[in-house]
Amino acid sequence: MKTRISVIIPIYNVHEFLEDCIESVLAQTINHWDLVDDYQRNLQIILVDDGSTDDSGEIAKSYAAKYENVEYRYEENQGLGHARNYGCEFAEGDYIIFIDSDDIIPPKAYERMYRIALKNDSDLTIGSVWRFNSKLTWASNIHEIAFGGTKELTHIKESPELFYDTTAWNKLIKFSFWKEHGFQFPEGILYEDIPVTMPMHYLANNVSIVYENCYLWRVRDGISKSITQTTDDLKNVEDRLYVMGLVDKFFNENVKEEELHRVKNLKWIKNDLMIFINKLKSMDIDESQEIIDLLLDYIDRNIDPKYFDEINEIEKLKYEYLFERDFDRLLKLLNYEHVNFYTLNIHSKGSDVVIEGDKDVFKTSSFIVNDFIKEGKKAKYIQKVNLEEEALEVSGFVVIPGLEAKEFKDVEYSFYLVNSENRKKIALRHEQIYLGNINSYRLRFGKKFSYKAAGYTVFVPYELIEDNEDFLGENKIIVVFKQRGVTHNIFAGNAKKNVRSRSENRAVLIGKTYMSIGYDKNNEIIINVSKARHSYDRIEIEDDDLCIFGPYDGDVFLHYNKSFISPESNIPFAYDDGNQCYRLDLDNIRSTEGQILYDNGESLVYKDKELLCLYSSKGQCVISSLLDHNIKINKFKNFSLVSEISERNNEIDIVSRLHSLDLGDRQLKSATLYFFLDKNQSSYPIAEAKIIKDVSTTQDSHIGDNAYIDDKDSEDIDSSSLNGENTYELNFKFNMNNKIITENLYHGYFDLLIRYDFGDLVFSTPIHLLDDFKALLKKKVFHFTIYRGNAWTLRIRAKKKWNWWDGRPRIYTRAYRIFKHLPINKKRIMFESMWGAKYSCNPRYLYEYIDENHPDYECIWSLNDEHIPINGNGIRVRRWTLKYFYYLATSKYFVDNVNFNERYEKREPQRYVQTMHGTPLKTLGLDVPGDFPTKASEERFIERCSRWDYITVQSEYVEDIARSCFKFDKDFLRYGYPRTSMLYTMNNEEDINKIKERMNIPLDKKVILYAPTWRKKNKVEIMLDFQSFKESLSDDYILILRLHHLMFSADFAPIEDDFVYDLSRHDSIEELYLISDILITDYSSVMFDYSILDRPIILFAYDLEDYAEKLRGFYIDIQENKPGPILFSSKEVEDAISNIEKTEEDTKYLREEFRNKFIPYECANSSEKIFNDLVSGK
Fold first, then answer.
1. In this structure, are strands 1078-1081 and 1006-1010 parallel, antiparallel, or unpaired?
2. Which residues form the Glycosyltransferase 2-like domain (predicted)?
3. Consecutive 10-residue runs of the chain (1178 residues): their mean pLDDT?
4. Contact 636/725 with Cβ under 8 angstroms?
5. What share of the chain is helix, strand, coil (3-state, %, to 5)?
């Protein structure tokens, strides 16, 4: 069957990764090409099951059954090399490519590689590689060397750096070339790629290079590490040396170029052998001896000593100690490099860079490291991205930490715009600029070097891309950076989070050319260029229809993305030939943002960047094209719009108007400007409104009236054009110097809202702003900015600052030493929760008891941000400040649920209570295999835990765990957790209703709490069908969603719905327990505390089979110790709630057994008992 590419995927026990891998191949853009030129398929996907013993084979079979171009093949386990060779027997493509079954292919990878391979008729095409794990994505160090040039077409004879590209799976290989040379992977060994890929590079007619990321190479976390990640195993060393010998043999027999032999041997020395030398630091001398013998034997037989003169100073020293078998010194150097290298005393000395180090490590007190520094990892950042009037301007810097750039002559830049599809490129103009303070980028070696002349601004003129077909599609900026004989060719990227958020998706329309800014998975800037269809310039409301005027240019829809509540939907516009416009009834527009698209998914383009407010009897429509010329629409029943705003001497003066429907004859009694904190679901008033006038009108006077504003110039807006059915004009004045306003504005962003009180009707709205606005107030340790945000609403940003003396190790170390000579305050208690991140959990509730009942005690709260609001009279102090160390030295009692920082040195008679932050479900501390990479790190952990005098526990079960995981041998406080006391004392209708009212939860509905654990960091996977729940349960219930904090991400927008309430950021989960009638969870420890209430608990374990591997790290068998039924589908959960009486009757006994085993010490007065024992010294 004629096929473009055969994709060979060997599989062995990768069930947790396999679906992501296969889906990434199926999602390749080339897989969806039209079949032309007699091709019958674009991709042939061959899944080779190498005798898997988990359910990987079943997963593979299911894909083969579902997709015609997916094939399943089975062989008894013979290893990766054999599986690849076996897969090649079934290949029918013009090209073959391999992929390891735990890795991922970016969507355009195969298309890019295939296009360039055809263009250059290349035997071999290689693509750039990035590494990733469950948390991060980063450049593969070894591949960065190989992809350091800019050539599209080359050969290893021209580009010897390709020796560093030895992996099999980032290569598109012409199958005829493969068969001509009879390539085969060696079988039964590791590192089977190397003896195949290095000869391929030499024998290929040419090599095409795709510099965009074509492969994501997984670094497995924790216990699921792959074989080649554990390089300290003796077989790994033997196999690596064996395959290196195979390459040596090939070179000796076939390669005549001396330069290639040189580069190959330098790669062995600097990379392949160095891997195992560096691993010696984790072994004792007996374990390492065999490995040292193997390395020295290989070097003696195969590598000319002259090559060791070409490596950097640190590498030379390692080999020197290796050759001398001076294991002690080698180990010291390796540990020094691992622990101290980037904080040691390294600085410029004349024309050299030197380390002022330990003579026992470096043989000298001043050790020159010029070459080591030059080979160091570069740092690149984008600092600004602006769409200016004539060009896109990108500012940033590239530095090699340790190589100073004090003057412009110290560095040399050149820039190119390159198209990712056709590789066309053109030089760009740039300017070198001086950098300000870049300490916040935390460059290696800290502040010891100057890089002030390393900045640049590069210009992408719009005229360059207007109507230029060479640059249609995706483009990147190549940065060529030269310094002190070192050259780097890289893509501009690594924008900080705030820079990226301000620039991503911004766009400009240049004639009929549309250019937008994006970022790829590697955080490299992308300039997307396309041809705009028609640019519209008139949108109005006529006869309760939204009308977009212009010629018919294809079918148009109002598109709403799928949410947890609503399915994806496309609402069609009708085209009105007579009036030359697209029309949509306003009833079809929702109170959530939708986007207007053509039927192929392209966005309609509005000619100008404008914000339009269109008023009608069916609500206020706000249409925005300010961001990217794309037309987005939202509808509001109640709408607040600023007509005037100003700032003078930190006093803010705001005039706003309310536009509202259906107020009838109600009169506005009051209006309050406030901000709202997710952390405690509380409102903080800023100012009361002066009601200037009631400009209510009849609906006929305002239908169809519109207000416009563009992104450059403000227009005066006549109040008559803004009248809604009921319109009020309000005036707010407040001064940002007012401590009452600022003291609870912690580091972050806050929407300003207006609460309107009409007596029997109270509601709140955000404040929309047509004009851009910004006002800054600077205080000593906080800056506050009031500004118009991306959603065109008024916001406050609070930004934490530091005094010059705070956060500096030398200063606070000396100060702490002095403070420890001060007397201890016998009635001072210091509290901290989650390393200062929160006011929460057991420390919070113990504090609140003490604050209320023992006011003679002074309570100190240690917080990362001293503006995080707390209840009561406690003193808030920022961690790492002088005040913090003062209180650390002088407090008598300490309460914490993790650990105070390592610099805390306990004094007599200080006492420390560890309250825990949950009932242990998953393994902790010393019970977690591999959690401490070195003996020293384990000893430091034990030392920190030894500072505790007491641990609060809920049961004997927790006591046993604490003795094991913390090596704790002191006193237990057997009173349960302070945080659960409120589950006893406030479990009544009055208190529950007060909490519900504060959170705007309807009093007449029961509450379902859904609190799943996290599976993948920053990824939200909701497997409950909220839409179905809403349809069947919303008459009687609402649902509260409480996500784990590790699931938060920029991609997850809080849900706004009258059935699902997203309270993930609410600090007190105990309040959520109290107001909930049913808990749905899975493998989360929330089940322990909730069981105190003796209310139904449902375990929704839809992935129990897949999660079984992770459950091995649990202390309990959840199937044997469950507090409620374990259900596996959303429908089962829904049915169980619909029949909650029967569910409750059938499973009530499980909760009783669960409580008796895991929380028998819980009581209503836990805080009182803990306090009494603490101060009495029991």
1. parallel
2. 6-160
3. 97 94 97 95 98 94 97 95 97 98 96 96 96 83 81 91 93 98 95 96 95 91 49 81 96 95 96 93 82 94 95 95 92 78 73 83 87 89 95 96 92 95 93 87 82 96 94 95 90 91 90 93 92 91 93 93 69 95 93 89 88 82 86 88 91 91 83 81 85 55 36 34 61 90 87 91 88 87 89 89 77 89 97 93 96 97 93 95 95 95 90 93 82 78 94 95 94 95 95 91 95 65 85 94 64 62 85 96 90 95 68 76 92 95 92 94 96 88
4. no
5. 30, 30, 40
Helical (H) or strand (E) element with 335? helix 327-339
Any bridge partners for residue 97, and if so which? 7
pLDDT for res 90 = 97
Its CATH architecture, for the domain 383-531, is Sandwich (2.60)
Domain 809-976, second-level architecture: 3-Layer(aba) Sandwich (3.40)
Q: How many CA atoms lie within 13 A of 104 on its CB side?
A: 21
Q: Which two three-digit tokens encode residue 1016? A: 């993948």
Q: What is the CATH number of domain 980-1158?
A: 3.40.50.12580
Residues 6+ away with beta carbon under 8 Å from 1148: none
| Residue range 639-800, CATH number | 2.60.40
Q: Is 1108 exposed, middle or buried (CB count within 10 Å of its CB: 0-12, 13-18, 19+)? A: exposed
Retrieve residue 425's tokens.
């490129």
**Residue 807: Cβ-neighbour burial (10 angstroms; 0-12, 13-18, 19+):** middle
The edge-to-edge listing of strands for the beta sheet with 346-349 is 346-349, 352-356, 366-368
pLDDT at 1015: 60
Query: Residue 976: which of 1176, 1155, 1177, 1175 has the closest Cα?
Result: 1155
* Delimiting residues of CATH 3.40.50.12580 domain(s) in the chain: 980-1158
Comparing CA positions, the residue from 1131, 940, 941, 1107 lying closest to residue 1028 is 1131
Beta strands in 23-170 (DSSP E): 41-49, 70-74, 93-98, 124-132, 137-139, 153-154
Q: In terms of Cα–Cα distance, which of 877, 871, 956, 875 is closest to 919?
A: 956
Topology (CATH) of 1-221: Spore Coat Polysaccharide Biosynthesis Protein SpsA; Chain A (3.90.550)
Cβ(521)–Cβ(107) under 8 Å? no
Among candidate residues 279, 506, 540, the one with its CA nearest the CA of residue 386: 506
pLDDT score at 700: 32
Dihedral angle of Cα 93, 95, 101, 103, to the nearest 10 degrees:
-140
Strands 632-636 and 619-624: antiparallel
* Helix, coil or strand: residue 64: helix
Closest listed residue to residue 891, CA positions, set 902, 901, 879, 904: 904
* Residue positions counted in the chain: 1178
Question: Which amino acid type is present at position 628?
Answer: D
- The reported pLDDT for the residue numbered 628 is 87
Instruction: In the chain, list all ranges with CATH 2.60.40.
Output: 383-531, 639-800
Q: Global pTM?
A: 0.74
**Which residue reads 């190989």 in tokens?**
146
> For residues 275 and 241, what is the distance between their CA atoms, to the nearest angstrom?
12
Whole-number pLDDT of residue 779: 84
Segment (H or E) for 115:
helix 109-120
- CATH 3.40.50.11820 maps onto the chain at 809-976
